[in-house]
Amino acid sequence: MQEDLTTTDMAEFSPVVELNVGGVFYTTALSTLTREPDSLLGHMFSGKTNPPARDAKGKYFLDRDGVLFRYVLDFLRNQAIVLPESFREKERLKQEALYFRLPAMAEAVESYTDASVPARALLLATSRWATAGVSHLAEMVLQMLNSGSSRAFWSVEELLSAAMSSERL
Prior knowledge:
It holds the Pfam family BTB_2. One of its GO terms (biological process) is protein homooligomerization. The protein has two domains: about 5-110, Potassium Channel Kv1.1, Chain A, CATH 3.30.710; about 115-165, no CATH class. It contains nine helices and five strands, in the order αββααβαααβααβα. It has helices spanning about 5-10, 30-35, 40-45, 70-80, 90-100, 105-110, 120-130, 135-145, 155-165, and strands at about 15-20, 25-30, 60, 115-120, 155.
């Protein structure tokens, strides 16, 4: 009788996973790594493929850019890209997204500009504004998020313009 390989292999992973990515250490939830089931990380940490090798300290080792990997984890956690102002490694980050088989992340990196604001991050900011009496913009952002729009980014100018004219984006 053959066992279900995925169930067997999943049992070997702890709910908290320690990673060594190019010499940079990360600790994250197994559910974060498997959030995108068709991604390389989803395959590695669900038992669909062999897990990565472990380093001398027992952490799973990925021979990738350890500094850029933080953005991969952020994308898996939030389904949005937030980059520092004047980020200069977009092409390298896009290559990391493609390597990890995260096409939505690659597309988000490609279309990201300094003026782009991830809607979910904006929602967090507008919740603070709402307590100060600027609830119209917060309500509008919630409507946009719940509208099922596939658009991931709006510029600050688009949001403020829509808020002033009460349009939906």
